Amino acid sequence: MAEKQYVLILDYGSQYTQLIARRIREAGVYSEIHPCHKASEAFDKHVPSAIVLSGGPASVYDAEAPQLDVSILGHGIPILGICYGLQVLSYSLGGVVESASEREYGRAILSTVDSASKLLAGVGIGTQVWMSHGDKVITAPMGFRSAATTSDTDFTVIENPEKKIYGVQFHPEVAHTPEGRTIINNFLFRIAGLKPTWSMSSFIESTVEEIRQAVGDAHVVAALSGGVDSSVMVALLHRAIGDQLHPIFVNNGLLRKDEAAEVRGIFCHHLGIDVDCVDAADRFLERLAGVIDPEVKRKIIGEEFIRVFEEESARFENVKFLAQGTLYPDVIESVSFKGGPSATIKSHHNVGGLPERMHLNLVEPLRELFKDEVRELGLELGLPEVMIWRHPFPGPGLAVRILGEVTRERIELLQEADAIAIAEIRNAGLYRDIWQAFVVLLPVKSVGVMGDERTYEHVAALRAVESTDGMTADWFKIPHDVLGVISNRIINEVRGINRIVYDISSKPPSTIEWE
Ligand code: XMP
Question: Residues 232, 378: contact at Cβ < 8 Å?
Fold first, then answer.
């Protein structure tokens, strides 16, 4: 990353921090989020071209309020403080922040705008901005002036153009501030003088070069699951190192209907990438026989996967790296202010424990990207839309969607039912609006009647949720007529299921998967 211009976002704990990074990248400038108390470490790694201080839940008067590391001010680097970022900036530079008893939340209108302000070029009086703050600045620091006001706040925007330091009380990164993009772009281009050079094609070019440098003539193994992240990771690595990459696709027998054939078809035929496809279904199903405890199922599947993967990798020579599809949200250190700033690093290993066990170094070419950027990258690399937009699928596969014992017969029942549900959801044009939809086979039988005959067969549940990251989710309101078609088709076409129920639970308190 040596010469890359980038914007350093110091995170003070706002729920919108990732949105700031997204907006800046959408403007064509690379951005990174670092915890506010690690500013100098970020500087040591790479001096930023501009800095944004995020919002946050604290008040500058709290005993453990996160502070501004003023050493970052001495470099002449343009700075934009947002909400708490504005307050901590003002407070640190000698301004006065008033601790308000009530929060100002929601819509506000700019009642004055300084037409000379570079930050507000193109933003007029009457513009809507989105507020979410308690404290406010009542006296700006020396050398700063107010560039905009609202009826409640005299220092809605402050600036010191000579030092290129700016602050806004509202949130320009949210959609409810319609001119937010204009303001962010003004900061990036008019004030910081950056160029919009960050794009997927430039990312591919520089990442391909970095991978080649890092890998040299060594070989790399990668677990290809057929999900978006691992598929894009494999396509990108193949672009960089060609046959030095050995993608391994393990069919554990717990995949969706036709999934193994589809993945093989896309990679081998469409992309011309030689994937090592291992049919290990028997091994997995033998070990799962008689197991009903969800945690034991997961453990068995995880262990068996590692064994198969190790065995396969051993077939290739000079393997020194394992590639993983880790994304940016998994590597951002999130800041928690309960009891002062503390960093919690989410450690997320897609292939748990493998790198240490196999003495391999990691290659994670997607670790700078958000999910929608990964999708864009995948399209640019020639992956088909069906793969790019495929719903997430858990590692343990259908084993956690068959409650009770996993048998071949039950897997087939579930695959058929699930394929019908997904086909009808696609037919109704709902597939992309839904985060994840699937069928769960319940360990319950119920009585039905078909023709003149009494039946006693499985109950299956349909689950569909909306979510942005899988951490929280709400049940998706599939129209009743679509639910009717799905239920009719499954009951009529899948022998062994005679009743469908619809799961209307949110996460929390439920989870997305049933096991
Ligand atoms: P839950 O059920 O915890 O799922 O609400 C949240 C998201 O994670 C997926 N999931 C998994 N993914 N290995 C995975 O790779 C797993 O063991 C696993 N368990 C759940 C789930 O499908 C949902 O998208």
Answer: yes
